Amino acid sequence: MELAILTQSLFMRWDNDMVCSNNKRMRPYTSSLNSELGLIEYVMCDKTGTLTQNKMEFRQCSVGGNVYLDPMSGCLQPQASNPEVSLFLRLLAICNEVVPEKQEGRHELEYASQSPDEIALVKGAAANGTILLNREPETLTINHQGKEEVFSIVANLEFTPERRRMSVLVRGEGGEYIVMSKGADQMIQPQLAKDDPTTQEAMRHLDDFAEQGHRVMMCSARSVPEEEAQEFLRRKEAASVELEGKDERVAEAYGMLERDMKLVGVTCVEDKLQDDVPGTVQFLLAAGMHVWILTGDKLETAEAVARTSSIVSPTMTISHVRSHDKNGVEGEMR
Protein backbone atom coordinates (compact mmCIF):
# COMPACT_ATOMS: atom_id res chain seq x y z
CA MET A 1 0.00 0.00 0.00
CA GLU A 2 2.80 2.43 0.91
CA LEU A 3 4.52 1.67 -2.39
CA ALA A 4 1.28 2.34 -4.27
CA ILE A 5 0.84 5.68 -2.45
CA LEU A 6 4.45 6.65 -3.24
CA THR A 7 3.95 5.77 -6.91
CA GLN A 8 0.74 7.82 -7.06
CA SER A 9 2.50 10.84 -5.55
CA LEU A 10 5.24 10.57 -8.18
CA PHE A 11 2.69 10.49 -10.99
CA MET A 12 1.03 13.57 -9.50
CA ARG A 13 4.37 15.36 -9.40
CA TRP A 14 5.21 14.42 -12.99
CA ASP A 15 1.80 15.41 -14.37
CA ASN A 16 2.34 18.19 -16.93
CA ASP A 17 -1.26 19.34 -16.47
CA MET A 18 -0.52 20.23 -12.83
CA VAL A 19 2.15 22.87 -13.45
CA CYS A 20 1.68 26.50 -12.36
CA SER A 21 2.27 29.45 -14.68
CA ASN A 22 5.72 29.93 -13.08
CA ASN A 23 6.63 26.32 -14.06
CA LYS A 24 6.40 25.15 -10.47
CA ARG A 25 5.20 21.57 -10.28
CA MET A 26 2.81 20.10 -7.76
CA ARG A 27 4.60 18.61 -4.77
CA PRO A 28 2.60 16.39 -2.37
CA TYR A 29 4.03 16.79 1.15
CA THR A 30 1.66 14.29 2.80
CA SER A 31 1.68 10.65 1.85
CA SER A 32 -2.05 10.29 2.51
CA LEU A 33 -2.98 13.31 0.37
CA ASN A 34 -4.23 11.28 -2.60
CA SER A 35 -6.38 9.03 -0.40
CA GLU A 36 -7.86 12.06 1.35
CA LEU A 37 -8.65 13.71 -1.97
CA GLY A 38 -10.57 10.60 -2.95
CA LEU A 39 -12.90 11.05 0.04
CA ILE A 40 -14.06 14.53 -0.96
CA GLU A 41 -17.73 14.74 -1.95
CA TYR A 42 -18.47 18.46 -1.67
CA VAL A 43 -16.38 21.41 -2.82
CA MET A 44 -17.64 24.72 -1.43
CA CYS A 45 -15.93 27.81 -2.81
CA ASP A 46 -16.24 31.55 -2.49
CA LYS A 47 -16.95 33.48 -5.67
CA THR A 48 -14.76 36.57 -5.43
CA GLY A 49 -11.06 35.77 -5.73
CA THR A 50 -11.67 32.02 -6.03
CA LEU A 51 -13.84 31.53 -9.09
CA THR A 52 -13.10 35.10 -10.17
CA GLN A 53 -9.85 37.08 -10.44
CA ASN A 54 -10.74 39.76 -7.83
CA LYS A 55 -9.71 42.37 -10.41
CA MET A 56 -12.57 44.84 -10.51
CA GLU A 57 -13.44 46.91 -13.59
CA PHE A 58 -16.10 49.62 -13.52
CA ARG A 59 -18.23 48.64 -16.51
CA GLN A 60 -21.63 50.37 -16.30
CA CYS A 61 -23.72 52.63 -14.11
CA SER A 62 -27.22 54.00 -13.89
CA VAL A 63 -27.74 57.66 -12.97
CA GLY A 64 -30.95 59.66 -13.25
CA GLY A 65 -32.69 56.87 -15.17
CA ASN A 66 -29.93 56.67 -17.79
CA VAL A 67 -27.44 53.82 -18.29
CA TYR A 68 -23.82 54.72 -19.07
CA LEU A 69 -22.07 51.77 -20.70
CA ASP A 70 -18.38 52.60 -20.25
CA PRO A 71 -17.69 55.00 -17.35
CA MET A 72 -13.93 54.51 -17.67
CA SER A 73 -14.07 56.22 -21.08
CA GLY A 74 -15.19 59.45 -19.42
CA CYS A 75 -18.74 59.28 -20.80
CA LEU A 76 -20.16 60.86 -17.63
CA GLN A 77 -17.98 63.97 -17.74
CA PRO A 78 -19.95 65.77 -20.49
CA GLN A 79 -23.00 65.40 -18.21
CA ALA A 80 -21.22 66.65 -15.07
CA SER A 81 -23.25 69.88 -15.08
CA ASN A 82 -26.32 67.72 -14.43
CA PRO A 83 -26.89 67.84 -10.63
CA GLU A 84 -27.61 64.07 -10.47
CA VAL A 85 -24.42 63.14 -12.32
CA SER A 86 -22.40 65.68 -10.33
CA LEU A 87 -23.60 64.22 -7.01
CA PHE A 88 -22.94 60.67 -8.24
CA LEU A 89 -19.32 61.48 -9.12
CA ARG A 90 -18.76 63.25 -5.81
CA LEU A 91 -20.21 60.27 -3.95
CA LEU A 92 -17.88 57.81 -5.71
CA ALA A 93 -14.87 59.96 -4.76
CA ILE A 94 -15.94 60.63 -1.15
CA CYS A 95 -17.88 57.62 0.17
CA ASN A 96 -15.03 55.13 0.55
CA GLU A 97 -11.93 54.32 2.58
CA VAL A 98 -9.49 54.70 -0.30
CA VAL A 99 -6.18 56.46 0.39
CA PRO A 100 -4.54 58.27 -2.56
CA GLU A 101 -0.77 57.92 -2.73
CA LYS A 102 1.64 59.92 -4.87
CA GLN A 103 4.51 57.84 -6.18
CA GLU A 104 7.90 59.48 -6.41
CA GLY A 105 8.71 60.54 -9.95
CA ARG A 106 5.15 59.98 -11.20
CA HIS A 107 2.31 62.43 -11.73
CA GLU A 108 -0.50 59.89 -11.49
CA LEU A 109 -2.03 59.05 -8.14
CA GLU A 110 -2.10 55.48 -6.91
CA TYR A 111 -5.00 54.33 -4.77
CA ALA A 112 -4.77 51.95 -1.82
CA SER A 113 -7.69 50.16 -0.18
CA GLN A 114 -8.64 46.76 1.19
CA SER A 115 -11.56 46.75 -1.27
CA PRO A 116 -10.83 46.41 -5.00
CA ASP A 117 -14.43 47.55 -5.66
CA GLU A 118 -13.75 50.91 -4.02
CA ILE A 119 -10.56 51.44 -6.01
CA ALA A 120 -12.41 50.69 -9.26
CA LEU A 121 -15.14 53.22 -8.43
CA VAL A 122 -12.68 55.93 -7.34
CA LYS A 123 -10.78 55.43 -10.60
CA GLY A 124 -14.08 55.66 -12.44
CA ALA A 125 -14.83 59.01 -10.79
CA ALA A 126 -11.31 60.22 -11.70
CA ALA A 127 -11.81 59.18 -15.33
CA ASN A 128 -14.82 61.50 -15.38
CA GLY A 129 -13.13 64.54 -13.85
CA THR A 130 -13.76 64.03 -10.12
CA ILE A 131 -10.45 63.08 -8.51
CA LEU A 132 -9.78 62.08 -4.91
CA LEU A 133 -6.62 64.07 -4.15
CA ASN A 134 -5.97 63.61 -0.45
CA ARG A 135 -7.43 61.92 2.61
CA GLU A 136 -6.60 62.84 6.19
CA PRO A 137 -8.22 61.49 9.38
CA GLU A 138 -10.59 64.47 9.54
CA THR A 139 -10.65 65.92 6.00
CA LEU A 140 -10.55 64.89 2.37
CA THR A 141 -9.90 66.89 -0.79
CA ILE A 142 -11.29 66.24 -4.24
CA ASN A 143 -10.92 67.99 -7.58
CA HIS A 144 -14.42 68.18 -9.04
CA GLN A 145 -14.38 69.21 -12.70
CA GLY A 146 -11.29 71.39 -12.24
CA LYS A 147 -12.20 72.92 -8.87
CA GLU A 148 -10.73 71.75 -5.55
CA GLU A 149 -13.24 71.04 -2.79
CA VAL A 150 -12.37 70.24 0.83
CA PHE A 151 -14.79 68.26 3.02
CA SER A 152 -14.61 67.68 6.75
CA ILE A 153 -15.21 64.04 7.69
CA VAL A 154 -17.75 64.30 10.50
CA ALA A 155 -18.43 60.57 10.92
CA ASN A 156 -17.68 57.28 9.21
CA LEU A 157 -20.43 54.67 9.44
CA GLU A 158 -18.25 51.70 8.66
CA PHE A 159 -19.07 48.69 6.52
CA THR A 160 -19.73 45.43 8.37
CA PRO A 161 -20.98 42.05 7.09
CA GLU A 162 -24.22 42.69 8.96
CA ARG A 163 -24.75 46.23 7.63
CA ARG A 164 -23.55 45.42 4.08
CA ARG A 165 -23.15 49.12 3.42
CA MET A 166 -20.98 52.05 4.41
CA SER A 167 -21.90 55.70 4.91
CA VAL A 168 -20.03 58.91 5.56
CA LEU A 169 -21.27 62.19 7.01
CA VAL A 170 -19.29 65.14 5.64
CA ARG A 171 -19.46 68.91 5.93
CA GLY A 172 -18.73 71.08 2.91
CA GLU A 173 -16.81 74.32 2.82
CA GLY A 174 -20.07 76.24 3.09
CA GLY A 175 -21.01 74.43 6.31
CA GLU A 176 -23.66 72.18 4.76
CA TYR A 177 -23.88 68.56 5.97
CA ILE A 178 -24.50 65.63 3.64
CA VAL A 179 -24.64 61.89 4.30
CA MET A 180 -23.60 59.55 1.49
CA SER A 181 -24.15 55.81 1.49
CA LYS A 182 -23.41 52.87 -0.80
CA GLY A 183 -23.90 49.12 -0.48
CA ALA A 184 -26.11 46.13 -1.26
CA ASP A 185 -29.48 47.05 -2.75
CA GLN A 186 -31.30 45.02 -0.06
CA MET A 187 -29.81 47.35 2.56
CA ILE A 188 -29.99 50.67 0.69
CA GLN A 189 -33.50 50.36 -0.72
CA PRO A 190 -35.30 50.41 2.69
CA GLN A 191 -33.50 53.69 3.48
CA LEU A 192 -34.83 55.50 0.41
CA ALA A 193 -37.59 58.09 0.61
CA LYS A 194 -40.93 56.52 -0.33
CA ASP A 195 -41.69 59.12 -3.02
CA ASP A 196 -38.39 58.77 -4.90
CA PRO A 197 -39.54 58.44 -8.56
CA THR A 198 -36.20 57.09 -9.86
CA THR A 199 -36.15 53.94 -7.73
CA GLN A 200 -38.20 51.67 -9.99
CA GLU A 201 -36.17 52.36 -13.12
CA ALA A 202 -32.88 52.04 -11.20
CA MET A 203 -33.96 48.66 -9.80
CA ARG A 204 -34.66 47.44 -13.31
CA HIS A 205 -31.16 48.52 -14.39
CA LEU A 206 -29.66 46.91 -11.28
CA ASP A 207 -31.32 43.57 -12.06
CA ASP A 208 -30.06 43.76 -15.65
CA PHE A 209 -26.50 44.35 -14.41
CA ALA A 210 -26.72 41.49 -11.92
CA GLU A 211 -28.05 39.05 -14.53
CA GLN A 212 -24.87 39.70 -16.52
CA GLY A 213 -22.88 38.33 -13.57
CA HIS A 214 -21.59 41.71 -12.36
CA ARG A 215 -21.27 43.07 -8.83
CA VAL A 216 -23.83 45.78 -8.18
CA MET A 217 -24.26 48.47 -5.53
CA MET A 218 -26.76 51.23 -4.89
CA CYS A 219 -25.69 54.75 -3.94
CA SER A 220 -27.80 57.22 -1.98
CA ALA A 221 -27.42 60.58 -0.26
CA ARG A 222 -29.32 63.41 1.44
CA SER A 223 -28.66 66.80 2.98
CA VAL A 224 -28.72 66.81 6.79
CA PRO A 225 -29.76 69.84 8.88
CA GLU A 226 -27.08 70.94 11.34
CA GLU A 227 -29.31 70.24 14.35
CA GLU A 228 -29.87 66.66 13.18
CA ALA A 229 -26.15 66.14 12.53
CA GLN A 230 -25.28 67.34 16.05
CA GLU A 231 -27.99 65.13 17.59
CA PHE A 232 -26.63 62.15 15.67
CA LEU A 233 -23.11 62.81 16.96
CA ARG A 234 -24.42 63.09 20.51
CA ARG A 235 -26.29 59.78 20.26
CA LYS A 236 -23.35 58.05 18.57
CA GLU A 237 -20.97 59.21 21.30
CA ALA A 238 -23.37 58.12 24.05
CA ALA A 239 -23.84 54.70 22.41
CA SER A 240 -20.09 54.14 22.02
CA VAL A 241 -19.52 54.18 25.81
CA GLU A 242 -22.42 51.87 26.68
CA LEU A 243 -21.40 48.66 28.43
CA GLU A 244 -24.59 46.78 27.58
CA GLY A 245 -26.54 46.96 24.35
CA LYS A 246 -23.81 48.98 22.67
CA ASP A 247 -24.36 47.50 19.20
CA GLU A 248 -28.10 48.13 19.35
CA ARG A 249 -27.63 51.74 20.48
CA VAL A 250 -25.07 52.40 17.73
CA ALA A 251 -27.42 50.85 15.15
CA GLU A 252 -30.21 53.15 16.36
CA ALA A 253 -27.95 56.19 15.97
CA TYR A 254 -26.98 55.08 12.46
CA GLY A 255 -30.65 54.53 11.59
CA MET A 256 -31.40 58.12 12.60
CA LEU A 257 -29.03 59.32 9.88
CA GLU A 258 -29.56 56.67 7.18
CA ARG A 259 -33.20 57.44 6.36
CA ASP A 260 -35.25 59.31 3.75
CA MET A 261 -32.30 59.03 1.39
CA LYS A 262 -32.37 59.99 -2.29
CA LEU A 263 -31.22 57.38 -4.78
CA VAL A 264 -28.11 58.71 -6.51
CA GLY A 265 -27.19 55.83 -8.81
CA VAL A 266 -26.30 52.18 -9.33
CA THR A 267 -22.79 50.90 -10.02
CA CYS A 268 -21.85 47.79 -11.99
CA VAL A 269 -18.38 46.29 -11.52
CA GLU A 270 -17.09 43.30 -13.48
CA ASP A 271 -14.92 40.60 -11.92
CA LYS A 272 -13.86 38.13 -14.60
CA LEU A 273 -13.59 34.39 -14.08
CA GLN A 274 -10.22 32.85 -13.37
CA ASP A 275 -8.63 31.00 -16.28
CA ASP A 276 -9.88 27.42 -16.84
CA VAL A 277 -12.62 27.63 -14.19
CA PRO A 278 -15.32 25.90 -16.33
CA GLY A 279 -12.96 23.07 -17.25
CA THR A 280 -11.84 22.60 -13.65
CA VAL A 281 -15.45 22.53 -12.45
CA GLN A 282 -16.36 19.95 -15.08
CA PHE A 283 -13.41 17.81 -13.98
CA LEU A 284 -14.63 17.89 -10.37
CA LEU A 285 -18.20 17.09 -11.41
CA ALA A 286 -16.99 14.17 -13.55
CA ALA A 287 -15.17 12.86 -10.47
CA GLY A 288 -18.52 12.67 -8.65
CA MET A 289 -18.07 15.81 -6.52
CA HIS A 290 -20.72 18.44 -5.83
CA VAL A 291 -19.55 22.03 -6.36
CA TRP A 292 -21.28 24.82 -4.42
CA ILE A 293 -20.81 28.60 -4.49
CA LEU A 294 -20.98 30.48 -1.19
CA THR A 295 -21.31 34.22 -1.76
CA GLY A 296 -22.86 37.32 -0.28
CA ASP A 297 -23.50 38.79 -3.73
CA LYS A 298 -26.91 39.37 -5.24
CA LEU A 299 -28.80 36.19 -6.21
CA GLU A 300 -28.87 37.06 -9.92
CA THR A 301 -25.10 37.65 -9.90
CA ALA A 302 -24.46 34.31 -8.21
CA GLU A 303 -26.68 32.49 -10.74
CA ALA A 304 -24.93 34.11 -13.71
CA VAL A 305 -21.47 33.17 -12.37
CA ALA A 306 -22.70 29.62 -11.66
CA ARG A 307 -23.76 29.31 -15.29
CA THR A 308 -20.60 30.76 -16.83
CA SER A 309 -18.41 28.59 -14.60
CA SER A 310 -20.50 25.51 -15.61
CA ILE A 311 -21.59 24.72 -12.04
CA VAL A 312 -25.15 25.07 -13.30
CA SER A 313 -25.94 23.52 -16.68
CA PRO A 314 -28.70 24.66 -19.09
CA THR A 315 -30.68 21.47 -18.40
CA MET A 316 -30.84 21.98 -14.61
CA THR A 317 -33.98 23.15 -12.83
CA ILE A 318 -33.25 25.99 -10.40
CA SER A 319 -35.26 26.42 -7.21
CA HIS A 320 -34.99 29.46 -4.94
CA VAL A 321 -35.10 29.04 -1.17
CA ARG A 322 -35.45 32.51 0.34
CA SER A 323 -36.35 31.81 3.98
CA HIS A 324 -33.98 32.87 6.76
CA ASP A 325 -34.98 30.35 9.46
CA LYS A 326 -34.89 26.58 9.71
CA ASN A 327 -38.65 26.02 9.64
CA GLY A 328 -39.08 28.26 6.60
CA VAL A 329 -36.29 26.50 4.71
CA GLU A 330 -37.73 23.06 5.53
CA GLY A 331 -41.13 24.20 4.29
CA GLU A 332 -39.75 25.46 0.97
CA MET A 333 -37.65 22.33 0.46
CA ARG A 334 -40.66 20.01 0.67
From TrEMBL:
Compartment annotation: Membrane
One Pfam assignment: Cation_ATPase
GO biological process, one term: phospholipid translocation
Keyword field: Membrane, Transmembrane, Transmembrane helix
GO function terms (MF aspect): ATPase-coupled intramembrane lipid transporter activity; nucleotide binding
GO cellular component: plasma membrane
Name of the protein this chain belongs to: Phospholipid-transporting ATPase
Biological source species: Hemiselmis andersenii (Cryptophyte alga)
